[in-house]
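User: You have something folded?
Assistant:
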Amino acid sequence: MDTPKPKAVVLLSGGLDSTTVLAIANNRRFETYALTFRYGQRHEFELDCARKVAKAQGVTDHVIVDIDLRTFGGSALTSDIEVPKGRSDEEMGSGIPITYVPARNTIFLSFALAWAEVLGAQDIFLGVNAIDYSGYPDCRPEYIAAYERMANLATRAGVEGSSRITIHTPLIQMTKGEIIKAGLSQGVDYGLTNTCYDPADDGRGCGKCDACVLRIRGFLHAGVPDPIEYV
């Protein structure tokens, strides 16, 4: 009889990074459970992408959770603040941009932690990156390490000592080009993904926001064409 696969919760936005992480978790022989959020973001096209990616990669279950971060705003992704476009490398490399959603990864990881407890899973995967990350404070290695310590103080299994939560961030020290190469080596279809902060109504990327610029540059560095269309 085959040994059951360990379960893992994977945060899946429908973007390039999270799609790659899902493929990595599957290839590491985890039984994957994808978690996506409708959190009041500017558009819901990425939710359609997440559904397609989850189906294509054969997750055991895919849950879309509704929370409304527009209640607080404070970000160009959850309010009517204009998304910055055409920023220089110097601008993208300094400060925390207005596209940062306050505490988003902390909130998302908390939901993932709750589901992992219910599933009896010890592993959570997410696609944070400390190199091509646009300056978000909740994408840094020290943040992930601190959250993992907290998670093991906050769960029944952690307190009882029966198991330990591990937060996997396989992309955290990779460039966008390296991420794309890793995904392609594992059969990822990047044509199913969405990256843009401010896409057109038909889902095409604007090509000018930070996320689009980093994605386009990543495909150039990887030496392969980007399969999605831009305005």
Observations:
- The CA atoms of residues 10 and 125 lie 5 Å apart.
